[in-house]
Amino acid sequence: MSNLPTEPEFQQAYNELVSTLENSNLFQKNPEYKTALSVVSIPERIIQFRVVWENDKGELQVNRGFRVQFNSALGPYKGGLRFHPTVNLSILKFLGFEQIFKNALTGLNIGGGKGGADFDPKGKSDNEIRRFCVSFMRELSKHIGADTDIPAGDIGVSGREIGWLFGAYKAQTKLWEGVLTGKGTSWGGSLIRPEATGYGLVYVSFDLHTQKTQYVDHMIRYASGGQESFKGKRVSISGSGNVAQYAALKVIELGGTVVSLSDSKGALIAKEGQGITADEVAIIADIKVKRQYLADIASTQGFCEKYEYIAGARPWTHVDANVALPCATQNEVSGDEAKVLVEKCTKFIAEGSNMGCTQEAIDVFEANRREKKGDAIWYAPGKAANAGGVAVSGLEMAQNSQRLSWTTEEVDEKLKSIMSNCFHNGLDTAKEYVELGEGELPSLVAGSNIAGFKKVAAAMHDQGDWW
Predict the structure, then answer these.
(1) How many domains are contained in the chain?
(2) Do 177 and 201 sit in the same domain of this protein?
(3) Binding site residues, as ranges?
(4) Binding residue positions for substrate
């Protein structure tokens, strides 16, 4: 009997990786990698600490803070900080574990980690959030650094919180260094960082000479033999935070129609013939900064005529779409919802969130891929599809190291190359290690898992972490 606590989210992430490795010929070709798997699945270090802060009434408050420094074989730990009441070690270990292989797929020299606190920013004043950030960094600053561990933002941690955290770090350490990413562009941040995860998921700046596109557009072009793109596609998106907003804006720019957004309270569904506009995305972005919900605007003039608001719902069973982009949180597409997406003839699903699909949903998509061949739904995991955010974070680290700021065009070109490599690395690795039936699309989840795992395992071997 194991003496470890129950960690369902981490166990799910681990099982998903292991199942794809075991169902490939990787261990037949390289049996020694089984040893590497047992090592890489245990974090190098877990830091847990209390965060004591004062609310506006002068009352003492206590939260739990965490940093999971999972793997540094490829570089310093890199991964976001999440402030949300659901935060616990299981969630942070799953996120950190996924981050290892996501970061490996970018080709950048960054390891994997994740952190945060069970602090709920909703309902708190700006001063309360600032005081919490200062107290949180008072302990975290002892364990991070520009060459050790570089956190970023995640749920509940926007550019504002990054600023307060950075100021607290600087006050504690007397160091101005690139210890956090997602900083303001006037003091060390990278251009297009806020947009990067959503843009990297979907966008295309197609160059006839370089043939560079972004992740989902790569999928569409590959599956259609170059005959289709986002233009004319109906796209269902979940979430309404940073990733969902920028994914929606890029889909609109590319000629697609966004037919849904959602939050923890419900889903906003476009009525027949309607689609979410860029101006409406801006309105939604504004209410999210104020920590309000879609329900607060769903009945207002301009929205109630065009959209149906369904309380407590996710969009997948309520819309017909060509492309589905889960961009909210983990496990937001269930097995039953996956079956509905298949029945509705959705062609592409790519995770903007981390582990957005349950294992049951992935099994549905993969079974359909094998059965329906070229007519199947094609699934892309978050560790590949949503790597744009951490990719630009890595580019921000490079700019900080050089004390330079690159132009939008320079960052954009590097991001295009990274996302193109993410897609082709997973595609080519799947072809090499997973048996492919005639007419089948390669398994992007298997290819991405194997490619990321192999790179990390090889580096760990060279450094003596396993032998």
Answers:
(1) 2
(2) no
(3) 78, 99, 102, 153, 197, 242, 393
(4) 78, 99, 102, 153, 393
